[in-house]
UniProtKB/TrEMBL annotation:
Protein name in the entry: HD-GYP domain-containing protein
Residues of the HD-GYP domain: 112-308
Organism in which the protein naturally occurs: Aminipila butyrica
Domain of life: Bacteria
Transmembrane segments: none
Length: 351
């Protein structure tokens, strides 16, 4: 049966070899549609495709038996330890409980084989295959969100759910062409519009599976909404956004700013806190963002920093009303209050 692109769903089976106009083979007959295949069809502007009538949805999960999947699984298990450790170095504190949250959650996804988990495993694998950056970002967001959830006193079940929400919040990016995801220069208006469609696309992708928790789907849709209504795609105000989406929004922004990227150095945590202090009150849930800032900065008390005047210093006191500009002790024994000396900034942490 010939089917237009908008009706083709993950799990269907392509019923023809597909070629570009120049004769390059792009998809083989009987290929199972994955998010990456959908993205490829869009990239090559293929509007309609022959689909096998009895689309074997179970084939979607046959990747579990492939050598590539086994190697991904062992990599993911190794990565759990190093990612947990890397978050610790960001937060400069150890939290065994959070490590257990992450390990349990990923292990459940990777080792248990109930039907719901198979859907999720397939998507985590697709994410890893499509973009290592999205995969790493998503795992980190899940970890940061679980920290914040614990700091806010949420239940163990809610914290586990936050890890899953973090893992899948950006799943819609698998349906965005890689050239846009990795473009280092400014995006065109058209490209920006496409990128901003990832929450809707992610929701639609997850919504194909009845057994995925509706709150995970909701976070995929709402994690770019902001409390002042300035977010997207629905421009919801805070009262219409659930707590999980609000927590993932904070973790998402923090991870995106502090993680090292190919095209820039990681942004100093004090600069990120300055951003949250300036914008956070309006854009994010105030109570959550304040808890987050306080906990993050607690972990940087007594840390060494490099100042913009070239001096090294130690953070001595975090001011209540200007948390991003602490009192520091200079290496020559003097003190400098950054809340008063606004021309000096913290450039980076010194390990
Ligand atoms: Fe996103």
């Amino acid at each position: 049966m010939r089917m237009s692109l908008e009706n083709i769903k993950v799990g269907m089976s392509v019923g023809q070899d597909l070629y570009t106009e120049s004769g390059q083979l792009i998809i083989l007959n009987n290929t199972v549609v994955t998010p990456e295949i959908l993205a490829r069809l869009k990239r090559f502007k293929i509007n309609a495709v022959e689909i096998n009538d009895s689309a074997p949805e179970a084939d979607l999960f046959d990747i579990k038996g492939t050598p590539a999947f086994h190697s991904f699984k062992s990599e993911a298990v190794e990565a759990k330890e190093s990612l947990s450790a890397s978050l610790d170095s960001i937060l400069q504190q150890s939290s065994d409980t959070v490590h257990i949250d992450i390990i349990n959650n990923l292990s459940t996804l990777l080792y248990e084989s109930n039907k719901s988990n198979l859907h999720l495993i397939d998507m985590v694998y697709s994410m890893h295959e499509y973009s290592d950056a999205i995969y790493t970002h998503s795992v980190n967001v899940g970890m940061i969100a679980s920290h914040l959830g614990r700091w806010l006193g949420l239940s163990d079940d809610d914290i586990k759910l936050l890890v899953t929400c973090g893992l899948f919040h950006d799943i819609g990016k698998l349906l965005i062409p890689k050239e846009i995801l990795t473009k280092s220069g400014d995006l065109t208006a058209e490209e920006r519009k496409l990128l901003r469609s990832h929450p809707q696309k992610g929701f639609e992708l997850l919504d194909q599976f009845e057994d995925i928790d509706p709150r995970v789907k909701q976070v995929a849709l709402l994690h770019h909404e902001r409390c002042d209504g300035s977010g997207y795609p629905l421009h919801f105000e805070g009262k219409n956004v659930d707590i999980y989406s609000k927590i993932i929004a904070i973790a998402d922004v923090y991870e995106a700013m502090t993680a090292e990227r190919a095209y820039r150095e990681p942004i100093c945590p004090f600069a990120v806190v300055a951003y949250f202090e300036k914008e956070g009150v309006h854009k994010f849930e105030t109570q959550y963002v304040l808890k987050f800032i306080n906990k993050i900065l607690d972990s940087y008390l007594h840390s060494k920093v490099l100042l913009s005047n070239g001096q090294e210093a130690t953070v001595i006191l975090i001011h209540k009303n200007m948390k991003s500009r602490p009192l520091v002790k200079l290496s020559d024994g003097g003190f400098l209050d950054l809340a008063v000396n606004l021309d000096v900034e913290i450039l980076r942490m010194v390990s």
